[in-house]
Structure formats: structure tokens, C-alpha cells
Amino acid sequence: MVFDDKRESMEEAGVGPALFPHTRHEELYSCEECHPSIFKKKRGANDVSMKANMDGRFCGTPACHDSIGAFPLYICTRCHINVKQP
Ligand code: HEC
Ligand code: HEC
């Protein structure tokens, strides 16, 4: 799944769309761990931003990409494609 609603601010920040591998997450977690408490079960229904992620919501929920169990939020390239090289 591709998160690209915020294409413009991502372009400004020099990162491309964020890719979310749904199948991979299904292998690791049960549906109820994400739906509906972390993500509404509908494409585009969640207003995900890096501020929200860093505030501990969505991808940055404490047991998720803000824990030793998963790569951290500061490794931009694990989620965003087309990151501009400096
Ligand atoms: C790690 C979290 C996570 C898990 C676990 C997870 N999902 Fe999702 N799911 C998401 C995200 C993120 C989206 C996209 C939401 C968006 O676009 O805002 C999504 C979207 C969906 C959608 C909407 C698809 C569409 O095209 O509108 C359905 C249906 C769905 N999930 C079902 C499931 C089912 C069934 C399971 C268990 C087998 C599951 N999900 C497990 C995070 C998860
Ligand atoms: C765990 C996955 C993940 C990581 C790691 C991540 N992002 Fe994101 N980021 C997202 C998602 C998902 C969105 C929502 C995009 C949308 O819906 O358009 C997003 C949105 C953004 C946006 C646009 C919206 C906003 O909040 O301004 C920018 C800019 C951004 N990310 C920059 C970064 C940078 C810079 C890093 C590294 C410090 C980073 N991201 C790391 C998943 C991630």
C-alpha cells in the first residue's frame, strides 16, 4: 500500500511516498492489533503524518516503529522511496 496523500510536503522534504507492506504486517500481528485502534480499516482514512508518527500514533505507536521490535522512525529510507541523495 502506498501512502502519498502528502506528496507535496514529502517532495519539499526530499522524500518520496511511504510504502506500507500490509501482508508482511499480517504475518506478524493480528488484525485487531491495528484495526480499528491504530488504523481505520479503509484506504486513505487515516491522516498519517510524521508529526503524528513521532507523537506515538500510527506507525510510531509505542509497540511499533518506536520499539526495539522494529526499525525506528529515523531510518527514513525503510519507509519512503526516492529519498534524495544529498
Ligand atoms: C500493522 C498494522 C496492520 C495490521 C496488523 C493489519 N492491517 Fe489492515 N491496514 C493497515 C493500514 C495502515 C491500512 C491502510 C489504511 C490507510 O490507507 O489509511 C490497512 C487497510 C486495511 C483495509 C482497507 C483496504 C482498502 O482497500 O480500503 C482492510 C480491509 C484491512 N486493512 C484488513 C485487515 C485484515 C483483515 C487484517 C488481518 C488479517 C489486517 N488488516 C491487519 C494496517 C494493518
Ligand atoms: C515507519 C515508516 C516511516 C518512517 C521510518 C518515516 N516515515 Fe515519513 N511518513 C510515513 C507515512 C506513512 C507518511 C504519510 C504519508 C501520506 O499519507 O502521504 C509519512 C509522511 C511524511 C511526510 C509528509 C507529511 C508530513 O508529516 O510532513 C514527510 C515530510 C516525511 N514523512 C518525512 C520523513 C522523514 C524525513 C523520515 C526520516 C527521519 C521519515 N519520514 C521516516 C512513514 C514513515
Give the arrangement of secondary structure elements.
Blueprint (H helix, E strand, L loop, with lengths): L1 E2 L3 H7 L4 E2 L2 H7 L2 H4 L15 H5 L32
Antiparallel strand pairs: 1-2
Bound molecules: heme C (2 copies).
Number of domains: 1
What global shape is seen? Answer: globular
**Could you give the count of β-strands?**
2
Structural class: mainly alpha
Spans with pLDDT under 50 lasting ≥5 residues? none
- Strand order in the sheet with the most strands: 1-2
CATH class: Alpha Beta
| Beta-strand share of residues | under 5%
Arithmetic mean of pLDDT: 95
Bound molecule types: heme C
Rg over alpha carbons = 13 Å
Helix fraction?
25-40%
The CATH architecture can be named as: Alpha-Beta Complex
Largest sheet: 2 strands, antiparallel
CATH topology name: Cytochrome C3
Give the topology string: H per helix, E per strand: EHEHHH
Number of H- or I-type helical stretches: 4
Distance between the termini: 27 Å
Structure described in brief:
This protein is mainly alpha-helical and 86 residues long. It is built from 4 helices and 2 strands.
Description:
- The chain has 86 residues and is mostly helical.
- The chain has a single domain, classed as Cytochrome C3.
- Helices cover 27% and strands 5% of the residues.
- The chain has four helices and two strands, in the order βαβααα.
- Strands 1-2 form a two-stranded antiparallel sheet.
- The longest helix is centred in the first third of the chain and has 7 residues, at 7-13.
- The protein is globular, with a radius of gyration of 13 Å.
- One heme C binds at residues 1, 20, 22, 25-26, 29, 31, 33-35, 39, 41-46.
